[in-house]
Each structure stands twice: as structure tokens, then as C-alpha cells.
Amino acid sequence: MTVASEEYASAKLNLSSTPKFTNLENWRLKVDEGRQTWHYLVTEEERLAWPQTICDRYSLGLPLNVPKLDTPRTPLESARNGFEFYRRLQTKDGHWSGEYGGPMFLIPGLIITYYITGTPIPDPMRLELIRYLLNRAEKNDGGWGIHIEGVSTVFGTALNYVTLRILGLGPEHPAMIKARGTLHKLGGATAIPAWGKFWLAALGVYEWKGVNPIPPELWALPKALPLCPGNWWVHTRLVYLPMGYIYGRRLSAPLTSFTQSLRKELYVEPYESIHWDSQRNNVAKIDLYTPHSKIMDVLNYGLTYYEALAAKLPLLRNYGLKLTLDQIKMEDENSSFQTIGPVSKAMNWLVTFYEYGTDSYQFKQHVEKNADFMWMGPDGMMMNGTNGSQLWDAAFIAQACVEAKLADNLKYRENMIKLLEFIDITQIRRNPPNWEKSYRQITLGAWPFSTREQNYTVSDCTAEGLKATIALQSTPGLPTLVDIPRLRQAVDVMLTMQNSDNGFASYETIRGPHLLELLNPAEVFGNIMTEYSYPECTTAVLMALRSFIKVDPEYRRAEIDETCRRSLLYIKKVQHKDGSWYGAWAICYTYAAMFALQSLASVNEYYETSDHAKRGCDFLVQHQEADGGWGESYKSCELHVYSRNEKSQVVNTAFALRGLLEAKYPHKEPIRRGIEFIMKRQQATGEWLQESIEGVFNKNCMISYPNYKFSFTIWALGQYASVYGDSI
Ligand code: LAN
Q1: Squalene cyclase N-terminal domain spans which residues (predicted)?
Q2: What is the pLDDT of residues 15-45, one digit of tens each?
Q3: pTM higher than 0.85 for the full model?
């Protein structure tokens, strides 16, 4: 077993000036059944044998040399130009790749684990990570926020500071001096939120005494108790699972001169003088989104006594550790070491280091699959929020192409067949072997968010996958690859997922009471303890079931009708007084309205026939900007009030337009102006440029969906033409 060596960071450069970065011309993206990994080619020979694709160059922000197109005169011409550009970016396995960045707390977990496990970071990766983090530092204060558009926080600044130090920047590098200044102004790293405390303690630069208890014995609770982790939101339980293991054993990297130095750099007071017991609930104000409840504080207080006891009862602790280890093993195997997300990815990897060592199969698999999370962009290398958004983006562009009459265009036949093939191979064909024991939702027939290998059912990904399949397969000239029995399996999965509040949640049904939110320990996120129903997921399932009955009218028909009826009740129930719906997975009210209005339209509830639809449309129209577009800021998600962006955004505009068109909003002018706005923002090459960040999770962290600027614009243009004819 290698242990973090003295030299690792210190001899690794300790740069006081910025290093030379890589040559972007040398990077290549490899795709294989949805898996996407970046490779740096060193020799001329290799580069000649594996030339860059347009997709590679586009992702890297390199000049493309694509032709200028005739200025479109109609919406469908604009959609065609858009796709003419976009189709060049399709990968050879049929999907569209893209960066899935935004959160600024993912790279640190990964790099800290590289450090602790003594795993060498390939130089091109190391250099490009440095470049990315330097590019993402806040211009004025040199710190980092929780996401790329947020203000500097202790969480972002302390973790990314440590990361850059591990990657080789010395404490005297100007960027480090500046960031450290900001960190100290914010009070230093003592007040870092819980997940930051965890990573710093694992690295050996924070004391475990300063971390609130994460007892692995929680996993012994019977499922009948709400507090059993099996009832939490799947992402939260799968983060607290490996955390419990590491915490339960209080595993920290051995102290080196490097970590000793970090202990000096991160704090405003001498490390030895810090009173760690007082730090457990110390969180900087700027970081705090969900303060601990009183009950949480009492529970934590009680648990610290329990921890003292557990230290004396190795049998009990070992039992807890065994339970967590079993679960970690199942999660790793079920997801082929991709794991459900980037936070647990690094933590599970760390567990395999301590448990099995660096020569083990498990450890090596984790190292290999790390690559699936890394993305090279114009600003350097980042860690994606999942191992990609492959299926999700593919499903949207497929439906957009059908709507915009591109799918039946002979010119694009090849693109559409490849796209359908990708959707076909991405459907999950089995249940995880231990699905009940690992508290998993069934997966047979589901579509995941990213790849089949990742192997997680998501309600709306299954729904969009099914809708896209049916839409493509119903297009004249396109083959049928997914047969009826497989479509039925997707329906079977969705029918297991409706909640008692009639809505659909993300990965599973709601298993625990929402009161569990009182025990949200993470401080920086909202609504993470249980599943919740969402208008987006509910609509997606409803629409998928409705498109399914067109191809298979008899199958489980009574249940399908009942599920649809109840979904609609949910959509109406969660509409706010002002006519809006809150969107949880993209920004924000415009996104949710697009879905909710679609639900209503599916039962012929339109502007003129339904008060719900009318109020939904009025809300949207109220927020149209003078330039004809809509521009919603991520602040909507945090604050729960519609917040304007400085600039109108093509993506929000497309969301809003699609909602209005679904609802048959009777006044053409606002819609026409919105379409005109989208057309004006289109470049001569047919592309739309990247604007503000599009997505969100847990209310407080934003995440990029760069493909939306193609899929939703093309979709809105097509839909406009379907309703009003192809002229503007
Ligand atoms: C995602 C990405 C996709 C998203 C949609 C399909 C868009 C949504 O409709 C349902 C929820 C889902 C699947 C989703 C859940 C939370 C994710 C996985 C993410 C936003 C991507 C990253 C995020 C994950 C939780 C990030 C890691 C952070 C933690 C708090 C663990």
C-alpha cells in the first residue's frame, strides 16, 4: 500500500509561478457505448493516427472552420441551421457529449483522494485542473463559491485552495496568496460546512473531533424506521454511507510536512490552539443555506456521547463498519464503479484504499472510472456532476428533431439512426442483483440519466427515453429497435414510482417523511433528506404514458389511466397562487412551467379552457423582457421568487415559449417575438453560444446543461411552426 509521501506535493513543484499548460490540439475524446473519456496524445504519430473530431475541437473551444449558412427566414430554417451545426458534434456512438460542470466542491474530494492514496495524477490532467481552478477563481477576491456563478464561500475557497496546493501550487503563488487572504477574511477553515470538515479531516488538516458524528451503525436500523438510511434520498444516503465508514474508523492521512504546512495556511489561529469541540456546529454565515434545526443539534449532542461509547465497544462499531462496507461493495458492483455521483465516487474509492489496498481490483477499477467524470473544456479540466448526461440530452434532441421535422429529413437519416441506436443500447436490461438489500429501485426497463453502465433508474429519464424512442420509431423510414416488450418494461418501472401525493420523484418513491429534513446535516443544500415529487418528473412520466398508449393501447391500460389522472391532480395542486410552478432541476419557474403546461394540455386544458393553464401563461408573459426573450437567474432557485437575469437567455426563452405553445396561448405576438429573439441570437454557423448556467440541484447548487441551448431552441422553433405555420 502506498501512503501519501512527503514528496507528493512538496517535490511535485511547489510552484510559485503558473506552470505551462497543455496544448489543446493534443486532446481527444474517446466514446464507447456512452462512456466518454479524454486522452492526451503526446507524439505526432499518435495524433496523426487519431485526429481531432469537430466535437473535440468544439468542446475545447478551438476554431472549427464550419461553413456559414444562409440566414434563416423561417423558424424551421433556423431549426435546420441549428441542427446542421449541432449534428457535427454527434459522437460516433450516437449521443451528444458535453461538459456537466458547475459545482465547485467535486474536484477537491477527488484530488484529496488522489493525494491520500498516493495515486499519481497524470501530468496533463494535473495541469489542466490547475488551469480550470485558476480560471474559476472569483475575479475580485480570488476565492471560489459553491458553484461557478456563486460568491466566494469557505466551502469553495478552503477546498479548492487545498486542491491547488496538492496539484502543485506553492503557498507563495500569487493566486494562493489571494485566495488565502479571502479565506482568512471569511474566518478561516474552522467554519467550513460539514462536507468540507469531512474532507479536511480525511486529509489530516482538521480534527475528527470537530466533525459531527456520522455513525455507520445507522445502517443497522430496520427499514420500518424512517431514520433508516434506506429511506433517505438516494444521493444523500450514498454520500453518508462511505462517510460513515471513514468517520467510523477516523481515518486520516498521515501528517507530512505538506499537511503540516496546510494546517498553518488554512486557519487564522494556530492549529494547536483551536478548540475543536466548538467547531462541529460552526459554519460561516456566507455558506449557510439550511441551518441545523434544534432537533439536529440535540441529536448531534447525543451522538457525541454515543461515539465515546462506540470507541469502547469495538464489536458494535465493527458491525456498523461491516454493514457500510457491504453496501459500498454492492453500490460499486451495481454501477461498475461509476457510483451514483461524483461525491460518493471519490469516497467509495477512498474506502477501497483503506479496505483492500492499491493493488486490489476494486481500487484499480475506481481509478479507471475516475476518467469518466473528467471533462476538458476551454478553461481546463473539471469534474462532471455525473459520468455525463448522455441519455438525457439524447432524448431531448431526438424529440426536438421530430418536432422540427428534422427526423424525417433524408439528409439527417444517418444521425437519427445512430441516435436511436444509442437510446436503444442505453436502456437498462436487468435489475441489480442485490437490489432489495441495497435499497434500490428496480431498474429493468428503465433509462438512466447518463449510461447503462451507471445503472440508475430515474423516473423522468425513463420517461424521456421512452418518449424519444417512440417518437423516433414512429418516424417514417426509421427502424424499430426497441420492441413492445421492452417499451412495456419501461412502463412497468414507471408504474412503480408514483407517490402517495400523486407526483413522481427522481430516483425512487418518497420513502421517509419530509420531516426528516429537520435532520439535514449538510448546511449548504435544501431538500436533500428524502425524495420529493416534482412537476418536471411528474409531467415527463405522464407524457410518456400517454405516448405509450398510442403504440400499445391495451397494456395495463386501467392503471395507466389512473396514474395519469392522479398526476394531473398533483400538477394542479402544486401550482402557486401567482400561476407559477417551482422547478427543482433547471432554472427555474420557466423550466417548470414548460412541463406543467404540457401536463394540462395533455387533457385538453388550455389557456381558454382552464384556469390553471391561463394563470400559468399569464405568469410567463408577465416576465417576458423587452427584447422578446426571457432571462431567469439562478437566484430564483435559491430564493423561491422569480428573479431576473441581467440578460435574456435563449434557454429560458425556449422553456417559456414551449409552455405557452402547449397551452395554446391565444395571443401570437409575445410568442412570435420570443421566436424572433431565439433566431436573432443564432450565429451564422447555426449554433447558439453558451449563456448563463442552466441547471440546479438541491436549491443552492447550479449545474451546466450546455446541450439545452440546442435541444430546447430547436424544439421551440419546431413547435412554433407546428402551431402557427413556418413563417414569422
Ligand atoms: C441530477 C441530474 C439530472 C436530474 C434530472 C434528470 C434533470 C432531474 O429531472 C431528476 C434528478 C437528476 C437525476 C439529478 C439529481 C441530482 C444530481 C445527480 C443531478 C443534479 C446531477 C448532480 C446531482 C448530484 C446530487 C451532485 C452531487 C451532490 C450531492 C449533493 C451528492
Answers
A1: 86-375
A2: 899 999 999 999 999 999 999 999 999 999 9
A3: yes
